[in-house]
Amino acid sequence: MSRVVIIGGGAAGMMAAIAAAENGHQVTVFEKNEKTGKKLYITGKGRCNLTNAGDREDLFRNVISNPRFLYSAFSAFDSADVMRYFESLGLAIKVERGNRVFPVSDHSSDVIACLVREMKRRNVEVRLNTEVMSVEAKDGVFSHLVLAGGKMVHADACIVATGGLSYPSTGSTGDGFRFAKALGHTVTDCYPSLVAVRLKEDYIRELEGISLKNIELRMKEESAKKDIYSGFGEMLFTRNGISGPVALSASSYVGPLLAKNKQLIFILDLKPALTIEQLNARILRDFDEFKNRQYKNALDHLLPQRLISVIIKLSGIDPEKKVNLITKEERQRIVQLLKGMTFRVDGLGEFREAIITKGGVKVKEIDPQTMESKLVKGVYFAGEVLDLDAMTGGYNLQIAWSTARAAGKAIE
């Protein structure tokens, strides 16, 4: 039996603790917060989107950074395994639109309770309100932890599961990056991800709070033809930009590109189900029905009320003009606008608003089968502390479960 210490009692930390305990090890989790699973509690708007029920290929398609690194971890513990595992712990789960998996209760606290119960059953010791200050190694082998106050804790192996920099109020303040660097690891540049995107257009403030469904959002460099990102679904206008599932997923690509001074634009198709010809015919029908109305009062069937004034302004057509006087060229301008409303990217929301961190401990320095450091024997990394990130939809928690399980099971 080995003594295993785990830094962080979040999703990855709890799963790693259980996996190590299953192997018969004596496990202690050090969590600096007053309870475990603090960030897990707020995921999925408090409902906990614990994985995605798509197949393994779907998992890889939705990982943005270093998907190939996850081949072994996903093969050993994929989303089907995660679902079976939580059901075996007594959690009733359901699959919703987009293959998102939630507890039937819609309470993330039930997911945390399952893991806490299982840790207790496996005799895992959890030390709350206990901050780890450093991870020490001797001659390339893990030696001990140093706690706040100076106490040393010796063990045979250490799993760093501290999270990244997102939602620092939950304890993710970059401790793991500090530990990794001190052990000689490279930490890649970090950016907020799955976060709202700020836009440059002044009129965005007029759209704050408007929620759009069934839209298509594309992102590309201003001068390029090829899309960097394309997504279909829901979007929300914020005070200074956009949020909602498609915008959050697009944000996964934004940080590194802005760091290289790339000029990025979004193209919003408000009516992706209609071709240009079909939309033109639809507008013609509406204008025929409202032929005696002014242009400003003729788009009610087509758009949310608060979006109409901005579309009118951008179209450059006199709002008082009767629709039966609108020319074919003006109508085409409206069609082009509805199929390709363009916004310039100004930046990203802050880490305190970000669901995850993009960047982390360089995966080339980690064994992909065991999550053990290639530089320091006996030190393992799991979850968001690694340079791994994915789209919204349960994929990031899947990364946490898979890497944590691999780390916990690998310790001999």
Question: Can you describe what's shown?
Answer:
This protein is α+β, with helices and mostly antiparallel strands and 412 residues long. It folds into 3 domains: 3-190 and 359-410, FAD/NAD(P)-binding domain (3-Layer(bba) Sandwich); 196-270 and 341-348, Beta Barrel (Elongation Factor Tu (Ef-tu), domain 3); 276-339, Helicase, Ruva Protein, domain 3 (Orthogonal Bundle), CATH 1.10.8.50. It has 12 helices and 21 strands. Strands 13-16-15-14-17-18 form a 6-stranded antiparallel beta barrel. Strand 8 and strand 9 form a beta hairpin. Helix 1 runs parallel beside helix 6 (108-121) and helix 1 runs parallel beside helix 12 (395-410). The model has no long low-confidence stretch (mean pLDDT 96).
